[in-house]
């Protein structure tokens, strides 16, 4: 089937502001938006977008699909196509557009540092962890740092969602010295944190769930 | 010019591990063509082998690996790999890796192919991902400088010594010289040389090809691993863990056909054996639509699939429209891993002074002719650690190598001439077209089953593709995020490597591990119990043979 990709273009070296360009590509319903983008790239090798794993584990191809942040490689054409066989692709909101669909990721990765994003190991840790505790770490540890949650927040403001997920995952880790103190470190009121945890699975492309009881640590 | 005592190229598991270790004693930076957390190490699902179990032993792990390698692995290197496994797993545990646990709280282990014991430490089926992110956390902790989305362009070599690199910053469209005492390559494999591969778009063999061009010795390049179970059509990886947790392979008649090929190990025979079995079933008419077979998990129950294989389940549902808890998955073999690479010793040292390599880019050689599942992740951390240690030592003990203006100028000039276009461009030709022909050629003629006449044809056609490539004009110029320019360079790397792979495969007139010649179906220890070394000569690759280190286990017949 023919699909029209309506792609937001911007080259800081020549353009005054972003504009949209249409590409008609031939894809199957079960192909992904990334497959379609790769075809558009053949038509215009100057088109810039990030991609790598094509299996939703590296987080490179996060962008805005018909106004909704997601991963191009994880979104099937049949789920993305709108009226007239069109799909609109824009860079992630709340990120600075550098070129076409490529955004500035440095502030995003920098924001992780605010939550001390590593396990501060206990001196007396003996290498064991109860399996039911380990299970709680699993889902938040699948975060791929794609930036979709950040882009999907109404106003990320002081709350940096990916950093919060990292902080919460570490707060659940019995090996970590900081533990509950991490919740103070995040400087996010508990009710906002609860709301964040509640809304996360729907916004995150990996459907990450954080056990709600982390707020009672 | 930038200066770092140790420069690590590549931000996957081997690179980050090397950087962490080196940073304890030296100034280190990581240069990576994608952000480190986007590295393909993160796609590894199954686990890290280490003999932790009470019934298991390092000795057993060594033997399984030697046998799995079809006796081509160097046994001294395999001994290092297996004996350092247990301590490195515990080191990762203390860094914060969220391993799956046993009821007693120990690191859980599962069975993978070719292993006598459940030996792979795992985190559901996100094993590579969680370790990659944990190492990244530690890199942040240590404040190691990262140059993300910087591409390695050239190794700066002076009198056989690597003194730094020329690198290209994709975002700023700028060249930089980075001067170093030691450069560690950890750039991974070349999976994108094949049309059917599990590998990411980024896996284009850059480091391997650039080292080769700089004069480093590559070895055993003809040994290419084809993973038995990738989703039919997209070739997205379905972990060996699916069989480790009890999955069955079935042909069109519903038969568990592995009984005919590996009656003892069945689905958990090594990958080379299983991939050949699948192709044989398909070729003899027992596949589905003449294209694929089934990987059946339906008897395992939804709870186990959800708990142990959540990623596999998601991938199959999304990309094949099949819930593996309810219906079998259509699967076919596809390129997965490069056994060969830049030749190193057990400390990651290559044939060029000041150049080290670790992980898939390297050939140390622990995998020989066929790698066992769970051994590559182990290799990244064990040999990444060793390379980092040795590089830091060099930084402490050695003086700064000479880096003359002439060498730097030469590197800049070769970049400029590349950009200006060696050719004027041919209207109807493109990187895309050449890439497509190259990758199809490799999958169809340099794949699981090889035969002399087709390999010869492949060598000739690759030479023609190379000529066409030389006539291409580099797309665009030095503009920010010019991915087409990177793609053009990457296809050049792949063409160099394809030539070495295909010619190595043509040269080796025997069948061993993943290298199977229909015209030479037997292993030939008399003539071919040897490594293939290759160095770039004036008229293309120059091959030679080198001895295999055999310490304890003399070659035997390899049955499963």
TrEMBL record, chain A:
Assigned keywords, A-Z: 4Fe-4S, Iron, Iron-sulfur, Metal-binding, Oxidoreductase
GO molecular function: 2 iron, 2 sulfur cluster binding; 4 iron, 4 sulfur cluster binding; electron transfer activity; metal ion binding; oxidoreductase activity
Pathway involvement of the protein, from the record: Carbohydrate metabolism; tricarboxylic acid cycle
Pfam families assigned: Fer2_3
Domain 2Fe-2S ferredoxin-type as annotated: residue spans: 12-93
Cofactor(s) needed for function: [4Fe-4S] cluster; [3Fe-4S] cluster; [2Fe-2S] cluster
Signal peptide limits: none
Keyword Iron belongs to the record: yes
PROSITE patterns for the chain: 2FE2S_FER_1, 2FE2S_FER_2
The keyword Amino-acid biosynthesis belongs to this UniProt entry's keyword annotation: no
InterPro entries found in the cross-reference section: 2Fe-2S_ferredoxin-like_sf, 2Fe-2S_ferredoxin-type, 2Fe2S_fd_BS, Beta-grasp_dom_sf, Helical_ferredxn, SDH/FRD_Iron-Sulfur, Succ_DH/fum_Rdtase_Fe-S, Succ_DH/fum_Rdtase_N
CDD domains xref list: fer2
GO biological process: respiratory electron transport chain; tricarboxylic acid cycle
NCBIfam families: dhsB (TIGR00384)
PANTHER family xref list: SUCCINATE DEHYDROGENASE [UBIQUINONE] IRON-SULFUR SUBUNIT, MITOCHONDRIAL, SUCCINATE DEHYDROGENASE IRON-SULFUR PROTEIN
Similarity section: Belongs to the succinate dehydrogenase/fumarate reductase iron-sulfur protein family.
Protein name listed in UniProt: Succinate dehydrogenase subunit B
Automatic annotation (TrEMBL), chain B:
Biological process (GO), any one: electron transport chain
Cofactors named for this entry: FAD
Taxonomy, superkingdom: Bacteria
Membrane topology, as annotated: Peripheral membrane protein
Entry keyword set: Electron transport, FAD, Flavoprotein, Membrane, Oxidoreductase, Transport
FAD-dependent oxidoreductase 2 FAD-binding domain boundaries: 6-377
Signal peptide extent: none
Broadest EC class assigned to this enzyme: oxidoreductase
Boundaries of every Fumarate reductase/succinate dehydrogenase flavoprotein-like C-terminal domain copy: 435-560
GO cellular component, as recorded: plasma membrane
Known EC number: 1.3.5.1
Primary localization: membrane
Family label: Belongs to the FAD-dependent oxidoreductase 2 family. FRD/SDH subfamily.
Family matches, as PANTHER family: SUCCINATE DEHYDROGENASE 2 FLAVOPROTEIN SUBUNIT (PTHR11632), SUCCINATE DEHYDROGENASE [UBIQUINONE] FLAVOPROTEIN SUBUNIT, MITOCHONDRIAL (PTHR11632:SF51)
Listed name of the protein: succinate dehydrogenase
Organism for this UniProt entry: Desulfofundulus thermosubterraneus DSM 16057
Source organism phylogeny: Bacteria, Bacillati, Bacillota, Clostridia, Eubacteriales
């Amino acid at each position: 089937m023919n699909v029209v990709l309506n792609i937001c273009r911007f080259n800081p070296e020549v353009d005054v502001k972003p504009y949209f360009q249409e590409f008609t590509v031939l894809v199957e319903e079960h192909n992904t938006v990334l497959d379609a983008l790769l075809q558009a790239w053949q038509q215009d090798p100057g088109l810039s977008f990030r991609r790598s794993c094509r299996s939703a584990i590296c987080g490179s191809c996060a962008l805005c699909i018909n106004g909704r942040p997601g991963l191009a490689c994880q979104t099937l054409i049949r789920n993305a196509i709108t009226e007239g066989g069109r799909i609109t692709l824009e860079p992630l909101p709340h990120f600075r557009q550098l070129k076409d669909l490529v955004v500035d990721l440095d502030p995003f990765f920098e924001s992780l540092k605010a939550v001390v994003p590593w396990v501060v190991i206990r001196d007396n840790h003996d290498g064991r962890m109860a399996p039911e505790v380990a299970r709680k770490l699993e889902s938040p540890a699948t975060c791929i740092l794609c930036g979709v949650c950040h882009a999907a927040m109404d106003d990320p403001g002081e709350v940096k969602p990916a950093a919060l997920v990292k902080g919460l995952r570490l707060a659940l880790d019995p090996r970590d010295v900081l533990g509950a103190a991490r919740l103070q470190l995040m400087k996010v009121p508990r009710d906002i944190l609860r709301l964040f945890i509640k809304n996360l699975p729907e916004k995150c492309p990996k459907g990450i769930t954080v056990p709600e009881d982390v707020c009672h640590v | 010019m930038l200066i770092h005592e140790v420069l690590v190229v590549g931000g996957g598991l081997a690179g980050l591990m090397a950087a962490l270790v080196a940073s304890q004693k030296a100034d280190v930076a990581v240069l990576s063509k994608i952000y480190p957390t986007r590295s393909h190490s993160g796609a590894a699902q199954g686990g890290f082998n280490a003999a932790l179990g009470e019934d298991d032993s390092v000795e057993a792990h060594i033997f399984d690996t030697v046998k799995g390698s079809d006796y081509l692995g160097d046994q001294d290197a395999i001994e290092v790999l297996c004996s350092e496994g247990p301590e490195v797993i515990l080191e990762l545990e203390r860094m914060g890796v969220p391993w799956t646990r046993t009821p007693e709280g120990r690191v859980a282990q599962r069975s993978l192919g070719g292993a006598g014991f459940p030996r792979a430490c795992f985190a559901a089926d996100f094993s590579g991902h969680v370790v990659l992110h944990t190492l990244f956390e530690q890199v942040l902790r240590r404040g190691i400088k990262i140059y993300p989305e910087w591409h390695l362009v050239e190794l700066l070599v002076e009198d056989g010594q690597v003194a730094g690199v020329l690198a290209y910053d994709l975002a700023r469209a700028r060249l930089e010289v980075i001067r170093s005492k030691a450069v560690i390559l950890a750039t991974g494999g070349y999976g994108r040389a094949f049309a059917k591969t599990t590998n990411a778009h980024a896996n284009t063999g850059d480091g391997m090809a650039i080292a080769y061009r700089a004069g480093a010795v590559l070895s055993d390049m003809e040994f290419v691993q084809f993973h038995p179970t990738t989703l039919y059509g997209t070739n997205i990886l379905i972990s060996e863990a699916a069989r480790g947790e009890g999955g069955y392979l079935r042909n069109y008649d519903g038969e568990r056909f592995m009984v005919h090929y590996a009656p003892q190990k069945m689905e958990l025979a090594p990958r080379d054996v299983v991939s050949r079995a699948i192709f044989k079933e398909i070729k003899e008419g027992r596949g589905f639509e003449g294209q694929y077979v089934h990987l059946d998990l339906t008897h395992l129950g939804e709870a186990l699939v959800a708990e142990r294989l959540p990623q596999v389940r998601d991938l199959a549902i999304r990309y094949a429209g099949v819930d593996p808890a309810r219906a079998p998955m259509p699967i076919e073999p596809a390129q997965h891993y490069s056994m060969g690479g830049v030749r190193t010793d057990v400390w990651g040292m290559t044939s060029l002074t000041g150049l080290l390599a670790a992980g898939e880019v390297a050939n140390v050689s622990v995998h020989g002719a066929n790698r066992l599942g769970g051994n590559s992740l182990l290799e990244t951390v064990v040999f990444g650690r060793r390379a980092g240690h040795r590089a830091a030592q060099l930084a402490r003990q050695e003086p700064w190598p000479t880096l003359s203006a002439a060498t730097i100028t030469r590197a800049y000039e070769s970049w400029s001439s590349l950009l200006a276009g060696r050719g004027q461009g041919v209207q109807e030709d493109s990187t895309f077209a050449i890439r497509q022909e190259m990758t199809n050629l490799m999958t169809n003629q340099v794949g699981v089953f090889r035969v002399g006449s087709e390999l010869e044809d492949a060598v000739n056609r690759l030479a023609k593709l190379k000529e066409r490539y030389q006539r291409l004009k580099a797309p665009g110029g030095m503009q920010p995020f010019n991915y087409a320019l990177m793609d053009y360079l990457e296809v050049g790397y792949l063409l160099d490597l394809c030539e070495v792979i295909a010619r190595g495969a043509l040269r080796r007139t025997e069948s061993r591990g993943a290298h199977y010649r229909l015209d030479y179906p037997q292993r030939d220890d008399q003539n071919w119990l040897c490594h293939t070394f290759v160095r770039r000569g004036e008229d293309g690759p120059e091959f030679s043979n080198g001895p295999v280190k055999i310490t304890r286990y003399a070659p035997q017949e390899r049955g499963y």
